[in-house]
Amino acid sequence: MNREQRQALALAGVFQAATVVDQLARTGQYDSRAWETLIRATLETNPESFEAIYGFELDNLGVGIDTMKQLFDRSPASSEVMRYALSLLLLANKLHKDEAMLDRVGARLSRVQGQAQHFGPTHENVIASLGELYQDTLSTYRYRIVVNGDPSLLSSPMMPERVRAVLLAGIRFALLWRQQGGRRWQLVLMRGRIKRALAELRR
């Protein structure tokens, strides 16, 4: 796998998180495989390889890949999903420059990993802890991601925590994208290369 393909898959993780957030906010439902991949990737901070982050199977990022294809093919796509994805990239950029906050996130995440080993990665206690981690760290920035949807759903039990946990997963993939050399301007100037990289991976 080359660098452009790794960039494309990391970006697919960002769009997968944006899509799942939109699904949760509007319908309360979500793709379970996409959801589990996002949560596991957040907890996997020391992977044996790049592929281990998303569980080795490309279809684990299928929701994000399909969303990106719609965008690049200029098919109708949710404006909210695009807004969430761009906001995640912007917020990850702020976090990347803030070493103190990175340390705080890392320390909290290591505690949640211990919890996940005991209960399982998608247990409600773990999701609640990931949501609290996001709220106590990234939500303290002046720039915040505003999630729109059904107010009754967004205020239902565990929904705020689920949404925040997925946003945290989006940040994880956005940081991964940066680590692979990805930059926001590439979304405009290098769409063709990203689209081609995804097509090569799915041959």
Helices and strands in order, then pairings?
Blueprint: H1 3-27, H2 32-43, H3 50-53, H4 62-72, H5 79-96, H6 99-119, H7 124-136, H8 151-154, H9 159-179, H10 186-189, H11 191-201
Helix pairs in contact: 1-4, 1-5, 1-9, 1-11, 2-9, 4-11, 5-9, 6-7, 7-9
What does this structure look like?
- It is globular, with a radius of gyration of 16 Å.
- The protein is 71% helix and 0% strand.
- The chain has helices spanning 3-27, 32-43, 50-53, 62-72, 79-96, 99-119, 124-136, 151-154, 159-179, 186-189, 191-201.
- It is an all-alpha fold.
- It has eleven helices and no strands.
- Helix 7 packs across helix 9.
- The model has no long low-confidence stretch (mean pLDDT 92).
- The two termini are 13 Å apart.
- The longest helix has 25 residues, at 3-27.
- It has one domain (3-201): HflD-like (YcfC-like, Orthogonal Bundle), CATH 1.10.3890.10.
CATH class: Mainly Alpha
**What's the CATH topology name?**
YcfC-like
Could you tell me the strand content as a percent range?
under 5%
Overall geometry comes to globular
Q: How many structural domains in the coordinates?
A: 1
In round numbers, the mean pLDDT is 92
Question: Which percent bin holds the helix content?
Answer: over 70%
Uncertain spans: none
Protein name: High frequency lysogenization protein HflD homolog
Pfam family, one: DUF489
InterPro entries: HflD (IPR007451), HflD-like_sf (IPR035932)
Family: Belongs to the HflD family.
